[in-house]
Specification:
six-stranded antiparallel β-sheet, 527 residues, disordered C terminus, globular, nine-stranded mixed β-sheet, Rossmann fold
Amino acid sequence: MRTMDSKTVLLRMVSCGRASFAVLILLLHGNALADKLSVARQLEQSQAKYATREAWTQRQAELRTGFLKGAGLWPLPDRPPLKVIAHSRRDYGGYSVENVALETIPGFFCTGNLYRSTRLKGPGPAILCPHGHFRPLGRFRVNHQIRCAHLARMGATVFSVSMVGWQDSQQTSHNNPLVLALQTWNNLRAIDYLAAMDNVDPRRIGVTGASGGGTQTFFLAMLDERIKASAPAVIVYPWAAPQGCRCEGGLPVMQEARTNAIELAAAVSPRAQLLISVGKDSTRNFPNFGFPFIKRCYEISGHGGRVENAHFANEGHDFGPSKRRAVYAFFAKHLDMKLLAEDEKKITLEKPSQMLAFNDKHPLPARALKGSTAIAKAFKNLPRSNKQGAGKPRTSAARQSRRDKPRRIPTAKQIAGFRQSYVHPKTGVKLTLKLDARQPPYTTVHKPGKGLNLRKSWQKKYESGVIPYRLNASFVYEETSKKNPAGEKNKYGAYFTPPIDVRIVIKDSGGKVIANFAEPQRILCYH
């Protein structure tokens, strides 16, 4: 095909079941044109092939698996309890800031700043804020500080993290061949850090970032189903690896599944997502090319209303006030936050020197790794005791078959009268009962209107034989120091919760999450 003028527009009709929409591609020169045409073909094939909910669910699993394999994170490494360095807390009006480093790999640290509301009553939402390639300040820049501080004033616990090789994350450069994998792993562990906090409701976690921070946002939201709401800004347009910085396309995270940025963003469905685009960067045509595909995928998932596009035709590549206002309203809606108008007079802007996780007073630990070779070796040697899912991704039918198998559930006697906790005398597994009255009344578990059927011995506690979902009775098995009769520690635990728009989290003895399930699940019990 001959090179076209940059103003020329190619109009293509892409069929999607009974619906169709026009895909507009702004034709640039050379490789850019080829990339856009390639993405257009991929999207057209995807829509034709994955037109049902079951087919799209299977495709989502393929995309996640392909990404993790390309990043060298398949199967996911173990997640032992994090070693956290936190210091220099500063209290401002309605929120606080402290400097934090997480040891995500032995000897390797993820650095950032933790913003917390000082007026929060009870567990609230948490939001991860990765920054993009905004030189030279990254997470220290003014609009990033304003966003994090204001979200904290709205009641969120906000973790602002540095990209590898930026600010105080100087153990290796941003040009490290593994930078994409390192940042993805840092972000996954940052969510572990936030979700484990006493003042955080793990069902209300969000993530947002712009440019390269937006790439991290939709990568993470696609991979981690704990993310309830995500808002990538000025980054979703027709591109595919190996385009962009090494932290976006430096590893083959899209090649195995033959995918692109638009389809990966669509794979976040059915969880809430706000995609921000502008008229003065590469996202200029996103409302016509990209968003219709993503919207259709959400409709296939049964939740077309959970995805939005905020387009600012006269704005450029940044995370300015209008974009922040859209994000505040989005998170207020989906993370159950109180919406406040941004007031810079109530936000204290800090100097970069105040925000460093490592400085002269708080130096990098002596055990810290230095250089790409040492870090690559440590990354390769991360323990991976979880071999579950190492083969092909399970189909919906296979997952349903697993759910239909009978499972052992704790008896009322084991729960010991629903005490706060109970240690099984033989296995040494700790059983904790959590009640949360904030959820709406529960109506469905196995079949519509049936509720959770309990053993007869449980019916004395609930005369109807059904646990109301408003109690959100979650049975959490956690490893203790005791050993079973065979002298070996139990490896697995399970997070039990009534299956409706909730997830079951299977954990190992170190508290590392082995698997998450987003769709409704029967109560599981691993011994």
